[in-house]
């Protein structure tokens, strides 16, 4: 399946989270197999996206925090990544609507793909 949308600026929250919450980066690495760059690429879609039911979960109790999230593997250009969605965002009560997906990868996707706000982009996922 291919998802297309436009690059938009984020809130730099995931960057802060990975840098400041002890054990969370290691937990993402263990569960995703990726050494995530501390930040995500935000994509605005023309439709609401729900994280697939068979996604991998990070529960708040696993790192002593208060935010649980799901993530699902994807590919952006040649780069493996994960679509990350907190439970609050998935329920429509978080900082991002369901029209926004956040993609984590081992590289700064915005930089390596020379992306700017408003650029169109495609993401591949296997459901």
Tell me about this structure.
There is one protein chain. Strand 4 and strand 5 (79-86) form a beta hairpin. With 127 residues, the protein is an alpha+beta fold. The N and C termini lie close together (7 Å). The longest helix has 9 residues, at 24-32. It is 20% helix and 32% strand. The protein has helices at residues 13-20, 24-32, 87-90, 109-112; strands spanning 2-8, 41-44, 56-58, 69-76, 79-86, 100-105, 120-124. Strands 3-4-5-6-2-1-7 form a 7-stranded antiparallel beta sheet.
Quick summary:
By secondary structure, the chain is an alpha+beta fold. The protein has helices at 13-20, 24-32, 87-90, 109-112; strands at 2-8, 41-44, 56-58, 69-76, 79-86, 100-105, 120-124.
Which strand order spans the largest sheet, edge to edge or round the barrel? 3-4-5-6-2-1-7
Structural class: alpha+beta
- Helix proportion: 10-25%
CATH class: Mainly Beta
CATH topology: Elongation Factor Tu (Ef-tu), domain 3
CATH superfamily: Riboflavin kinase-like
Radius of gyration, Cα only, in angstroms? 13 Å
Q: Compute the separation of the termini in Å.
A: 7 Å
Domain module count: 1
**Anisotropy-based shape:** globular
Mean pLDDT over the residues: 92
By DSSP, the count of extended strands is 7
Major beta sheet summary: 7 strands, antiparallel
């Amino acid at each position: 399946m291919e998802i297309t949308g436009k690059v938009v600026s984020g809130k730099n929250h995931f960057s802060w989270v990975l840098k400041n919450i002890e054990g969370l980066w290691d937990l993402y690495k263990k569960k995703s197999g990726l050494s995530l760059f501390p930040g995500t690429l935000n994509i605005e879609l023309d439709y609401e996206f729900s994280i697939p039911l068979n996604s991998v979960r990070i529960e708040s109790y696993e790192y002593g925090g208060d935010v649980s999230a799901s993530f699902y593997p994807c590919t952006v250009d040649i780069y493996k990544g994960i679509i990350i969605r907190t439970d609050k965002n998935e329920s429509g009560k978080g900082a991002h609507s369901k029209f926004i997906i956040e993609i984590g990868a081992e590289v700064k996707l915005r930089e390596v793909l020379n992306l700017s706000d408003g650029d169109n982009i495609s993401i591949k996922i296997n459901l």
